[in-house]
Structure formats: C-alpha cells, structure tokens
Amino acid sequence: MKSSSRRTFMLTLAATGAAVSATGAFAEARLDEKDPQAAALGYVADSAKADAKRFPKHDNAQLCNGCALWQSKPTDTTGNCALFPGKPVSAKGWCSAWAKKA
Ligand code: SF4
After folding, report:
1. pLDDT per 10-residue tile (average), the chain, 102 residues
2. Domain range list for the chain
3. C-alpha triplet 11, 16, 17: angle, nearest 5°
4. Given this model, what pLDDT does residue 20 score?
5. With a 6 A CB cut-off, is 31 part of the ligand 1 pocket?
6. Which of 6, 17, 41, 102 could join 95 via S-S bond, C-beta 3.0 to 4.6 A?
C-alpha cells in the first residue's frame, strides 16, 4: 500500500468510526420504558413523568443519577443501573426501586 493510499484509508477509517460513534451504532440500547421489568418498576426516562397515582411517594427530585443503584458518573446523561444490566438508563429517570445514594 502506497503511503498516500494508506493515509486515505486511515482517514476514511477515522471518519467512518466518527460517523458510527455519532449515530450510536455501537452504543448499548437504552432501557425502554416498555421493557417488562422496567414497566413493572414504573421506570420512566423523565422522573417528572412518573405515575403519581401508582407511586404516591415519588418525588421529582429522585433521579437515577442520585440513586444508590446508579453505577456511572453523576454527570453522565445515561448510565448503568444494577437492576438493568446492559440497558443504560437516563440520568433524569426514575423507577420505584429508587434509593437515595449514600
Ligand atoms: Fe434509576 Fe435507581 Fe431505578 Fe436504576 S434502580 S432505574 S438507577 S431509579
């Protein structure tokens, strides 16, 4: 491979990788509110949309990124939850298993 074609190849590879990364093609699928386990726990990607009738003790200040089961950085917009391995949850989400981070 000539130097110029190797350079072109590397640039193409970098551009393709950036495009794939930008579309999230390699990212794990976010937890769907309709996922059976998520629905059973009343998970919502926006804590403010939690079902107040079903969960009267819910508070809008309770967010996934403040939950003891949140396993990512507090500043991440999506993160891992111990209850939903492989299905990232929204930092601003909530479910009925919410427990205040110590
Ligand atoms: Fe969010 Fe905590 Fe429920 Fe996981 S257990 S979905 S981090 S509220």
Report:
1. 52 43 60 98 98 98 98 97 97 98 94
2. 1-30, 31-102
3. 100
4. 42
5. no
6. 41
Ramachandran sector of residue 54 (left: φ over 0; alpha: ψ -120 to 50; beta: rest): alpha
Q: Is the CB of 63 under 6 A from ligand 1?
A: no
The CATH label, of 3.40.50.970, 1.10.357.20, 3.30.200.20, 4.10.490.10, for the domain at 31-102 is: 4.10.490.10
Q: Relative to the CA of 93, which ligand 1 atom is closest? A: 1
71 exposure class (CB count in 10 Å sphere: 0-12, 13-18, 19+): middle
Per-residue confidence (pLDDT) for residue 61, from 0 to 100: 98
